[in-house]
Design brief:
By secondary structure, the chain is of the alpha+beta class. About 20% of the residues lie in helices and about 40% in strands.
Length: about 130
């Protein structure tokens, strides 16, 4: 089981997405930034570290949204998903990955790993105010 801290960087009705490297698991698909929680590390610490490394941003506050267990044929993941509305720095692909702000309404136009589908649905509901 791979435990992953996922950050939803939100700005107005937009969310930041990043393109997974082709050579990685689920490569070539879009994702919400984050990364592996290391042994002995809290999810909050992992989220802060990963978003600093991947995007060059500092988190000031984040709220836990959901946990998603997903079993791919070759890997099991536990996604710990957090809403990040208060951060500093302008997100960029600090590890060379393409990143972009997209409207929550346009998320269906992008291909995400199957484990990310509950996140996409949650974001669409937030946009509708339900």
């Amino acid at each position: 089981m791979v435990h992953v801290a996922v950050g939803l960087l939100l700005r107005s009705d937009q969310v930041l997405i990043a393109l997974r490297p082709k050579q990685s698991h689920q490569g070539g698909l879009w994702e919400f930034p984050g990364g592996k929680v290391e042994e002995g590390e809290s999810v909050e610490a992992a989220l802060s570290r990963e978003l600093k490394e991947e995007l060059g941003v500092d988190i000031h506050s984040a709220d836990s949204i959901m946990q998603i267990n997903h079993n791919y044929n070759d890997k099991k993941v536990l996604l710990d998903v957090w809403s990040v509305k208060n951060f500093s720095g302008e997100p960029c692909g600090a590890e060379g990955q393409p990143v972009k702000w997209v409207s929550q309404a346009s998320l269906q136009d992008y291909q995400f790993p199957a484990a990310n589908q509950p996140i996409v649905l949650w974001l669409e509901k937030q946009l509708l105010g339900t």
